[in-house]
User: What shape does this take?
Amino acid sequence: MCSYNLINGTYACENNNTINGILKNELGFQGFVMSDWSAQHSTISAMTGLDMTMPGDITFDSNTSYYGAKLTAYVENGTIPEVRVDDMATRILASWHLLLPGLAKLPKDELYSILSPGGRRASI
Assistant: This one.
């Protein structure tokens, strides 16, 4: 989890040297990096190693996000390569799969109820 702190003048969730350089490359971390609550500062943090933003909204209950539509736009205009989004999804889903090995075998309706107890559905 990256935090609110500055590391050598760069927010921890956008610090390429710390997340990509040290954590993922030098130490070989294969899991996903998640932000502390509202510690993300921009969409470009996807390129600096942030895989998942929490709670998802830029500010609580704002229905705005640095990912979602903004991340899609960055991929479409070439700022962020699609392969990076694939890596983000792979890291998140691999961790999820390792923690809940039987989940992939569930029928879709049951899976939806686990993933979205409030009734909101995501594309799977």
Helices lie at 16-26, 69-76, 82-99, 108-115.
